[in-house]
Specification:
- By secondary structure, the chain is mostly helical.
- Helix 6 (145-185) runs antiparallel to helix 7, helix 7 packs parallel to helix 10 and helix 17 (542-548) packs across helix 18.
- Helix content is 71%, strand content 4%.
- The strands form 3 sheets. It has a 3-stranded parallel beta sheet with strand order 3-4-5. A two-stranded antiparallel ribbon has the order 1-2.
- It has helices at residues 2-5, 35-54, 57-73, 79-132, 135-140, 145-185, 187-234, 236-242, 245-297, 303-345, 385-390, 406-411, 423-436, 440-445, 463-475, 493-506, 542-548, 551-591, 594-615, 620-630, 635-666, 673-726, 729-732, and strands at 374-375, 378-379, 392-395, 481-485, 511-515, 528-532, 535-540.
- The chain folds into 3 domains: 8-171, ABC transporter type 1, transmembrane domain (ABC transporter transmembrane region fold); 187-300 and 631-741, no CATH class; 368-525, Rossmann fold (3-Layer(aba) Sandwich).
- It comes from Aureobasidium melanogenum (Aureobasidium pullulans var. melanogenum).
- Pfam families: ABC_membrane, ABC_tran.
- It is a multi-pass membrane protein.
- It is found in: Membrane.
């Protein structure tokens, strides 16, 4: 992720496919949409509303068809009239279906287009904003939080715009149209549906808010678990060295266990809402049909009115049920968008374009400036940040290399420059910088030379090799200023000698600012500043400071004593090395070059790994069997969920049988209206029984599968984390690169 981000406008450059930096950061995600995107969005919104408004018209067609069939059964209409009614209803079904399909397809495509475009812009703007922040911001940013925002939260935002917003708009239009149709049929029938509409609105609102609260609580804990896992896996060597595997595993499991409760509560809330949504038609239908039968015997309504009102009421109530989950995702996406936009709009104290950029005294980190820092007598707050960075090269104590080739790692030094260079010129300057950094020889000794992959954070190279590549990257664009922050403090004496040669050559023709505890690094400095307890106590050239006999004099005296002891050790060590070389020279000639041998071992191990991976591939049946074994402690819950799902599924065909009996009762003539009321009342009671069955079965499905899936996910995460930490060091370093150069 990071190498690609470096091409962004954070470095004064633009990247194809991303909008240019906006003078005023948008306050909403739609601020990242172009004029065309907004036009597509509003057109799609209109299409979704229109498609939703047309959907309840199905109830009118259905009511007309049922009324025609009942009239024919009662003998009050001819076959010709029935054929005409059925043909008309069929044509209306086809035309309405095609129209709804076209509108839904167009609106959905438009929403997905807008969601993809806006998410792309946010994926560009968010890393850009992260890179603009000062160090104090990153100190407070938990490991993995930024990547989790990019991979998870932006995905939620995109889902909210792409699909859930379309569903919410169409569901609202469906509900409004269904409400109007119900009142158009008969106000008494419509009045009976109002409590169901109100109940669906209240329940969906409560369920949405409650589930979002539980989701946020679980997400916060899962973020902590993710950060712990990322830190542990990135520090596998230290985990093995200090025996921290069991401690980290327990801590990771505790995080997962703590997150399970709010996660489970959220799922139970949603499952209860789903159970109510499936039980609701079994409550609304019998009430409308029973009241309709009474009104029918009084000749206040027709079968057409009853059927249309019942279907429209259920369609409207189901629309509200669809709004609930969609609203939940929309709320989650708005919450995620708020966090992302707050980060993007957060002004860094080092950003000269922000209101804080002209106030160096306010830079976070408790650094007190008695005078404003200046570059060539110019206040740095007045300089363009991109231009300033283009003229500064930086080498830290622990250089950060990206998991790509050595060539690309050095080439990243060009990102901040505005020079227009050909590929040949870039290649020549990369090789020249590597030679100046004394890195060319060991690079060429690697199996793939400059195309060798350095691994995550450069772990396939030694510390001295990483530092020399970092120096080459810093000087490849020939910066006017070079900053060195403890560039040799983390190296052994042999590596330090090579790196110091590279630094001396790099500092020869440019202004260099060196922060160091090893005085050998700054022997040739024009001006040395000695600090103690945060204050400057000495300043001058090396000769002047030695003549003063102060703190610097004492520090160098101690370092010389230490170096003399090290030299004595190196002399004895060199004698042993020469003896070992004599004893092993014959063996080396017989087995070939060590580099080739190491590379051959690497190839064999990689081929073995590939063959093991190929053999470890599971079929669908094996995968299901494996998952069942992991989920076996919850086998009772699984069978309970399967049984509940079967009962819930069987309730639908049972309802269709009851519905057909009610239609049959409505076909009775006026002379049998008493029997009509009795039959409708009987089947209405059966509907109430089906409502109880639906409520219990769907609740069982949500409860059983919710608990079992959370337990399965927790077990898989914990075992995967433990399995990674159980591997030896070679697992995290699959390729061997000779480190003796």
């Amino acid at each position: 992720m990071m190498p690609g981000v470096l091409w962004r406008r954070h470095w004064g450059l633009s990247r194809p496919g991303c909008m240019e930096s906006l003078p005023n950061k948008p306050g909403t995600v739609f601020g990242y949409a172009s004029t065309f995107d907004k036009a597509v969005f509003y057109s799609s919104a209109c299409g979704a509303l229109l498609a939703g408004a047309m959907n309840p018209l199905i109830s009118v067609i259905q009511g007309r068809l049922v009324s025609g069939l009942n009239e024919f059964s009662a003998g009050s209409t001819t076959t010709t009239n029935l054929d005409s009614t059925v043909l008309q209803a069929t044509n209306l079904y086809v035309y309405l279906s095609l129209t709804i399909f076209t509108l839904v397809f167009a609106s959905t495509t438009g929403f997905y287009h807008c969601g993809e475009r806006i998410a792309t812009e946010l994926r560009c703007a968010y890393p850009d904003a992260i890179l603009r922040q000062d160090m104090s911001y990153h100190d407070q940013l938990a490991p993995g939080r930024a990547s989790n925002r990019i991979m998870t939260d932006l995905g939620i935002i995109q889902e909210g715009i792409s699909s859930k917003l379309s569903v919410a708009l169409s569901a609202f239009a469906i509900f409004a149209t269904a409400f109007v149709i119900t009142f158009t049929m008969h106000w008494k029938l419509a009045a009976l549906t109002l409590p169901f509409f109100a109940a669906m609105i209240i329940i969906s609102t409560i369920a949405g808010r409650t589930s979002v609260q539980h989701h946020k609580a679980a997400t916060r804990i899962y973020d902590s678990a993710s950060s712990l896992a990322q830190e542990a896996i990135a520090s596998t060597k230290h985990v093995h060295a200090y025996g921290l595997r069991n401690v980290l595993q327990r801590k990771f499991s505790n995080y997962l266990q703590a997150a399970s409760k709010p996660d489970l509560d959220g799922r139970h809330t949603i499952s209860t809402f789903i159970a109510w949504s499936n039980a609701m038609p079994c409550l609304l239908y019998p009430l409308v049909f029973w009241a309709g039968s009474v009104l029918l015997t009084r000749e206040e309504v027709s079968v057409f009115d009853i059927t249309t009102a019942a279907y429209a009421g259920v369609i409207g109530a189901f629309a509200i049920a669809r709004v609930g989950p969609s609203a939940q995702t929309l709320i989650a996406s708005m919450s995620s968008a708020k966090d992302v936009l707050e980060t993007i709009s957060h002004s860094s104290s080092q950003d000269p374009k922000s209101s804080h950029g002209l106030q160096p005294a306010q830079i976070v980190g408790n650094i007190e400036f008695h005078e404003k820092p200046a570059l060539d007598k110019t206040d740095i707050a007045a300089l363009n940040l991109g231009w300033l960075r283009r003229n500064i090269g930086f080498v830290s104590q622990e250089p950060s290399l990206f998991n790509t080739t050595i060539y690309e790692n050095i080439r990243y030094g060009f990102i901040n420059t505005q020079d227009v260079l050909s590929e040949k010129e870039i290649s020549d300057r990369i090789i020249s910088a590597a030679k100046d950094a004394y890195a060319h020889d060991f690079i060429m000794a690697l199996p793939d030379g400059y195309q060798s992959i350095v691994g995550e954070s450069g772990t396939r190279l030694s510390g001295g090799q990483r530092q020399r590549i970092a120096i080459a990257r810093a000087i490849v664009r020939n910066p006017a200023i070079l900053l060195l922050d403890e560039a040799t403090s983390a190296l052994d004496s042999r590596s330090e000698e090579l790196v110091q040669k590279a630094l001396d050559k790099a500092m020869g023709h440019r202004t260099s600012i060196v922060i160091a505890h090893r005085l050998s690094t700054i022997h040739n400095a024009d001006n040395i500043v000695v600090t103690s307890a945060g204050k400057v106590v000495e300043q001058g050239s090396r000769d002047q400071l030695l003549a003063n006999g102060g703190i610097y004099h004492d520090m160098e005296l101690k370092e010389r004593t230490k170096m003399n002891m090290q030299k004595q050790y190196n002399v004895s060590s060199n004698k042993l090395d020469k003896n070992l070389e004599k004893e092993t020279s014959q063996y080396d000639d017989s087995v070939g070059e060590p580099d080739e041998k190491a590379h051959a071992v690497c190839d064999d191990s990689e081929s073995d790994i590939d063959s093991q991976v190929a053999q470890a591939r599971f079929s669908i049946g094996q995968t299901l069997k494996f998952l069942y074994k992991l989920n076996k402690p919850e086998s009772r819950l699984l069978f309970t969920g399967l049984f509940s799902a079967a009962v819930a599924g069987l309730s639908y065909p049972t309802q269709s049988i009851i519905m057909s009996r009610i239609w049959e009762a409505f076909a009775l003539p006026k002379s049998k209206f008493a029997q009509l009321e009795a039959n409708v009342s009987y089947y209405a009671n059966l509907y109430l029984l089906m409502a109880a069955v639906a409520m219990i079965s769907w609740s069982g499905v949500g409860f059983a599968f919710g608990r079992s899936t959370i337990a399965l996910a927790r077990r898989i995460k914990a075992r995967t984390f433990d399995a990674i930490l159980s591997q030896d060091i070679s697992f995290s370093m699959p390729t061997i690169i000779p480190l003796g150069h």
